[in-house]
Amino acid sequence: IPRGPGVPGNPPTPGPRGISLPSNIPGPPGDPGLPGLDGEQGFPGLPGSPGPAGPGTIQGDRGDSGFPGIPGQRGQPGSPGFPGSTGIPGRAGFKGERGDSGPIGNPGAMGFPGDPGFFGFKGEKGRTGRKGPPGSPGTTIPGEELRTYPGDPGFPGSVGPPGDLGPQGESARPGRAGSKGNVGPRGKLGINGPAGTPGAVGDPGPNGLPGSPGEQGSPGKQGAVGRPGSPGRSVSIGYTLVKHSQSDQVPPCPVGMSRLWDGYSLLYVEGQEKAHNQDLGLAGSCLPRFSTMPFIYCNANELCYFASRNDKSYWLSTTAPIPMMPVADRQIPRYISRCTVCEAPSQAIAVHSQDITIPPCPAGWRSLWIGYSFLMHTAAGAEGGGQSLVSPGSCLEDFRATPFIECNGARGTCHYFANKHSFWLTTIEPALQFVEAPQSETLKAGQLRTRVSRCQVCMKTL
């Protein structure tokens, strides 16, 4: 019987790897392999020896400049270097010149409230007010109520005898004060009172009429020789002399001079960080009235301001002890020197000895006072001024290391600050004028006057 094709068999599996037996007989060479990959670039070779010179021996012309190259990229920042050693300190530089004043700045922010101002003057008495409406009537406090019931009306009885005096009732509470009544009619003229005490002496009455001339008396005896008179005054001569007391007392004028006015000793003022000095020998240094801010300042905008800046005024001071804190209001007068302006018959000058002895006045001149040679002064911002050495203001009667006080205008206070300095002429030995340099020295309290020059104010005798 014919049969169909059978089921296909399983695919063959590889057999096990054969065993390789070792042998010393080399086999035939294999086929050449594929070319290998290119190797890495080797190190650059050594420079070759210079070749022979070319045929051309003459240098050619210089070629044209090439086009500018493209800017290269910015290089990376270098690594920080090692810190250098500390250099030698340089010498102190010279003080630079003062710069120009800057433009006026915008108004600053509102400052803190200032100190309380001075007490104002007593105002005028106000007008009498209108009459008020009448008050409400006072309330009567009722007594203890007795509750009763009304009975039938009785017949009128006969008048009985007067009863005995009843016991004293309790005192009632005082009622509220009633309103003020209307003005009553004018009373009659009262009885004359006793005589009053004698009044003060009245003002002198007007001069009486001149009496008739009396008969000429007999000539009297010759009187004793009088004292030498004071120097006479020239009429309308126009010279002035200023005396500063350096105390809170007004100084008198010298003999033979009349007083024009008295005031307070102004040394100088400072505004816009600039100082304006006053000569203590001229009448402008004696202001009749005092203020910590004796001036106002105005600008190009047609505006003026008072006590709104940090401007200052400086005044000669007194011998009052230096306070620990700034003084204000009624404490200030005891620290401000007083002064007097006098009319003088001739011009006064100051003579300085540059020694501890009092210099004599020139021939034909008389002495007004002696003192110490005041030269100049500085304060805040190295601003200040000086005195002309021929002016009487350069000869102050009293010496002190702090002869003036600073007043802050806007705050209204005065104080001795540490940046104030006074300068005085010193003593010079005639034998050492051109011999050696001045020797540095520091003088303490009790030795100050040993190196301050003396002076004298003199006036020509007419």
Structural features, described:
This protein is mainly β. Helix content is 0%, strand content 19%. The protein has no helices and 17 strands. The protein has strands spanning 239-244, 258-271, 274-277, 286-287, 297-298, 304-305, 312-316, 327-328, 338-344, 348-352, 365-378, 384-386, 395-396, 404-408, 413-415, 421-424, 454-460. Strands 1, 2, 3, 4, 7, 8, 9, 14 and 15 form a nine-stranded antiparallel β-sheet that branches. Strands 10, 11, 12, 13, 16 and 17 form a six-stranded antiparallel β-sheet that branches. A hairpin with a 4-residue loop joins strand 14 (404-408) and strand 15 (413-415). The N and C termini lie far apart (189 Å).
Low-confidence runs: none
* Biggest pleated-sheet summary: 9 strands, antiparallel
The percent of residues in helical segments reads under 10%
Q: Name the overall outline.
A: flat
Distance between the termini: 189 Å
The overall pLDDT average reads: 78
Percent of sequence in beta strands? 15-25%
How many strand segments? Answer: 17
Our Rg estimate from Cα atoms comes to 58 Å
Q: Look at the helices and sheets and give the structural class.
A: mainly beta
**How many helical stretches?**
0
Order of helices and strands: EEEEEEEEEEEEEEEEE
